[in-house]
Each structure stands twice: as C-alpha cells, then as structure tokens.
Amino acid sequence: xxxxxxxxxxxxxxxxxxxxxxxxxxxxxxxxxxxxxxxxxxxxxxxxxxxxxxxxxxxxxxxxxxxxxxxxxxxxxxxxxxxxxxxxxxxxxxxxxxxxxxxxxxxx
Amino acid sequence: xxxxxxxxxxxxxxxxxxxxxxxxxxxxxxxxxxxxxxxxxxxxxxxxxxxxxxxxxxxxxxxxxxxxxxxxxxxxxxxxxxxxxxxxxxxxxxxxxxxxxxxxxxxxxxxxxxxxxxxxxxxxxxxxxxxxxxxxxxxxxxxxxxxxxxxxxxxxxxxxxxxxxxxxxxxxxxxxxxxxxxxxxxxxxxxxxxxxxxxxxxxxxxxxxxxxxxxxxxxxxxxxxxxxxxxxxxxxxxxxxxxxxxxxxxxxxxxxxxxxxxxxxxxxxxxxxxxxxxxxxxxxxxxxxxxxxxxxxxxxxxxxxxxxxxxxxxxxxxxxxxxxxxxxxxxxxxxxxxxxxxxxxxxxxxxxxxxxxxxxxxxxxxxxxxxxxxxxxxxxxxxxxxxxxxxxxxxxxxxxxxxxxxxxxxxxxxxxxxxxxxxxxxxxxxxxxxxxxxxxxxxxxxxxxxxxxxxxxxxxxxxxxxxxxxxxxxxxxxxxxxxxxxxxxxxxxxxxxxxxxxxxxxxxxxxxxxxxxxxxxxxxxxxxxxxxxxxxxxxxxxxxxxxxxxxxxxxxxxxxxxxxxxxxxxxxxxxxxxxxxxxxxxxxxxxxxxxxxxxxx
Lengths: 108, 601
Fold this sequence. Notes:
By secondary structure, chain A is an all-alpha fold. Chain A has helices spanning 22-30, 42-46, 57-65, 69-76, 84-88, 95-106. Helices cover 44% and strands 0% of the residues of chain A. In chain A, helix 3 (57-65) runs antiparallel to helix 4 and helix 4 (69-76) crosses helix 6 (95-106). The radius of gyration of chain A is 17 Å and the shape is elongated. Chain B folds into 3 domains: 2-41 and 78-242, no CATH class; 372-479, Rossmann fold, CATH 3.40.50; 488-598, Rossmann fold, CATH 3.40.50. Chain B is built from 30 helices and 10 strands. In chain B, helix 1 (14-37) runs parallel beside helix 12 (219-239), helix 5 (77-104) packs antiparallel against helix 7 (129-157) and helix 8 packs antiparallel against helix 12. Chain B is elongated. In chain B, 46% of the residues are buried. The chains are: A mainly alpha, B mainly alpha. At the A-B interface, helix 5 and helix 6 of A face helix 21 and helix 28 of B.
C-alpha cells in the first residue's frame, strides 16, 4: 500500500525514565533540596566563576538529572564555593553541599 | 599527734589504693601516647615548658583554670563557685593532708594512702594544739567542698539557676563517676567524725561527732564508714577514664601543650587527643551554639562532636553542619578549639577532591589596576558585596565626600578570597585563589586595601601575607574618617542595635570601632548577647550542610536577641549578615556604610 498522509515520528521528548539517575537519586537522599530546583538560572547568573569558564549550578543539576554525570562535573570544576548561588536561590537550595557531593562523585 | 596503728595499715585502704594505682598508670600511658604522636619539632617545643617564665605561666594558668575556674566565675558567679569550691577545696584537702603527714608522721612520707586517711591512723596527744590549726583549716575546706557538692546537686535539678539553660546528657560512666564524687565528701565527713574524739577535729567533725554520738561512738561502725569512704574514692578513680571527669587531669597536660605552642594537626592524635579528653562536657557550648535554637540540632554541638571523636565514631556530619561562628570556642572554659578539629575533619573528608582554576586568569584587561598605585586605596568588595550593591555604593559616596581616590578592584571580574574553600577543608584550592588574588593586590602598588566583607577581611589579614599593605575593614576606616574630621556626620533621633559579624568580632577582635561610629550618628542600644557572645546570623559560609530552613530558624533566633530592646534599625557591617537578616527582619536592616552615608552632612 502506498504511503500517504501523516505518520507518527519518533519522540524528541527527553525521557527521564530511561536516564540513569543514580547519582541524582543518591544526592537527593542526602540533600533532598535538589528536587525543588526550578531551573530558574539565578545561580548561573550570579556565579563568580562563570566569568572565566562555563560554570553553572543549574546546568549541573540538569545534567545529573539526565544521567550525564561527567558533564555535570565539568560545569562545577571551577566553582569557588563562594555561596552566591545559595544566597540568590529562590528555593533556598543548599547549593554548596550539592556541589561538593557532585565533585566527590567524580572521585568515586 | 602520734600514730595509733603500729603498721600504719588497714585493709580498708585497698579500694582507694588500687584505684589510685590504676589511674596513675592510665594517666602515664595516656601522656606517653600523646607525646609519641607529636613530631620531632613539636617535641622540641615541648621542652620549652621547662623554661622558668613559661613554667610560671603554666602554673598560673593551672591555678586560674583548673582550680579557681576564673573563666566560669566571670560567666556566672554561682557556677564558678560550684566548680572552684570542689576543685580548689579538694586540692587544699590533699595538700594539707600531705603537710600533716610531713609534720606529724614524717616516717610515713611517700605512702600513697596515708595523707588521705591520716585521721584514721593518728591519735591526739598532749601537744595536739599544734594540729588544731590544721583541723580547723581541713574542716573549713571540707565545708567549702560540701557546699559546692550541694550546689552541684541543686544544678542537676535547676540548671538555669546557675546560668545554664541546657546541660549535656550523661552516660553510664559519667553517672558512676558523678555519684561517687558526690559521695566522697559526705563520707569523708562522716568517717572523720568517727575519729574526731580520737584523732581530733574541728567545728565540723567534732560537731557531727557530738550530734551523732550514739552512732559514731559505736566502734563497730567505724570500719564500715571508712570502708565506704575508701570505696567511693576507688570507684571514682576506676570510673574516671570512662567519664567526662577525665578533664581534671588532662587539662593540666593541655595547658602545658598550649604553652609549648603546639597545635592540632590530626583528628584524634597528639594535641587533639589532649583536647578531646579535656572536654568536661559542661555544656556551655550547647547554649552558645546558634544551631540549638532548633532543639533537634543539639546533637551537632561541639560537646557531642567531641564525644563522638572520643568514642572513635564517625563525626563528619556534625563537622559539616557547624557554622564555624566560633562562639563555642570563645566561651569554652577549657579553651578547646573545636573549630580547628572540625576543619581537620573536613580536610580529611575532601582530601581527594580538587577544583581546577587554570582558566581563571586575572590579568584580564578589564581589571586595569595600573592606576591603583596612584590611588593608594584599593577597594575589594568580595562576592557578598556584589549581591548587596548598596553597601559599595555608600562606601564610594563616603570616599568621594572625603576626597579619597580609590580603585575598585572587583568591579568587573573577580575571584573569591578563598575563605569559603578554606572553611570547607579544600586547603589546596584555597591557596591557589590566594596566590592569584595576592599577585593582583601586590602588583597594584596600593598602600591600603579597603574591604567591606568581614569574611574577606579575616582572610586577607591572616592568610595573604600582604607585606606593607594595610588591610582595613570599612567600619574601622569610616571611624577613622570621622575621627580625623574628613567627613562630618549629624546625629538623628533614630535608635539602632549593632550586630557583630562572627568573622569581624570574634574572628578579628573588632568590636569598638563600629560602635563608636554608630554612637556618633544614632542612639545605640545594647543587645542581651553581644560582642564576643554575639549570635551568628545563620548565613555563615562556614557550614556546608545546614539547610535553608535551619538557617532561617537561626536568623530568627539571632534577630530576637538583637531586637530585644526594640531599636528602629538593625545595623551590621557584613554584607552576608545584611542579606540574611533582611529576609526575616520586619524593621529596617542596614549596613554601617549605608547609615553613615545617610547621616553625612
């Protein structure tokens, strides 16, 4: 039969169910705040280190949520722990604790 | 006075004697273990304690801290009396016992139990008049100790009457030692009353002897009471290593080590071990800790942290929670620097992680510091001031009014001073930031570095080694400007209270300059707990793991203290405290620079 009309294309939606969220869940068990992130980007906007290198707490959280743990570490490698992100966060997320947990995960 | 028993021995001394031998052995082994853990340089330093001047200071400190408890007296007279009466009274009883042995029975010198049970072994003779002086002093000392024990029992039930809202929870070892300590002195009184008509006594022992004559004159009771007295002593000595009372002997060693300028280098060994065993678990740090506004977090206070270390348990959670506000260290009657031990704990925890600051390049053309040399004054706001631009704005206006040229070091690009990294235990990374910032500051050729954040101020003064450059906090600088007449201010009718930021007050000892500034522009009110007892705002970067909600509780508690006498404005001199208090304070919160700017003529 000749093909015509519309057909269902493969979904481009990010499927969080298929992502490996082990690090995300592991951190969430220690610092539940991480689940309240709304990705507003206040942390990245105020970041001291971001002027020198791509540093973003928001980016890191998005990446570990999607299972890209190594990339997440890259986002935080130049963090100076100054705590500005914690002060501007509208959800009061304990950012420095999460940053240290993510960096520690790299070391195994 | 002459000996009553030919052999100078009775079986009842055995519990005391075994306890005493046990504790002496235990202390010897403990001391040797601590000294073994010191490295060669530290051991060499330890020899300096034999220098007469140092030795004198050590003895003075031992008298002031271990016996007279001057620090606790300053805090609360009753609490101080309780500690001093027991410690000093008992010490005097021991010393006088030895003097009596030396004077009246010199042949028994060096026998461990003899001075303690002296009264049992001697009897009055015709010339006992010489001894009556000692009888009197001994009875007096015993009375003093008994009054202290009475206060201690009272404190168990009503600790707030002695200035302590909360005390530590005791464990089995503590309880055994505590109750045997309480028993020792009433039993001593009773035991000496028995022999008061044989060996002599004074107002106390003689008095009891005549009061309870029918009981005490029965010789079959004598042995029983002396056995009980000796057993209480023995029990106390055996329980000592497993109780908080280990602080009594260990504190002497700690004072000596401190005077030899030895510092904590590991979590559990050497100096730290002396500190851990010197903790008397008095609980003064519980009331001092800002985390205890929330009663659940009492377990994170220094006293319980040290107890975890002493029992060799994992203590990384309380180490990460601590705000590092240093109030517990400031108020600790023993002077245990628990913050330093917690820092070592964090370093161990973060030993294997590292950040990477190679892309951080401060020779960026945007930070043009070539002109800074001309300006002489370099201003560094730091990360926190970047979030509170009103502070730097006010400072610039003040500087302009005074006609002082300045260069804003971190107007565009900036890096952190490194203190948060230092406090989180990432020493290596902090040093990298220090070297980058330090080069920039030294290259600028400035003479003065003006800082508006106490966190940076402490870092620049203590870790940077900036040679001839003067580091000054803006509250001090503004005070100088006012005193030199470079700016003039008018006084308004508003009232204010001043919050001492931890890093500026306890951390750097700056209490008076900000107050002098505020007194010249407003009516400065006091807060119940201020200066060295100031309560952290809860925003401190020292804590890694404290959640937002807990911090908010602390901010509210600290605010309650500051607003007790209802001032109009809460003034602080730290941008972080400013931000933290602003979110919970219904009245106005302002930085000292802001209020000075508003009051400038």
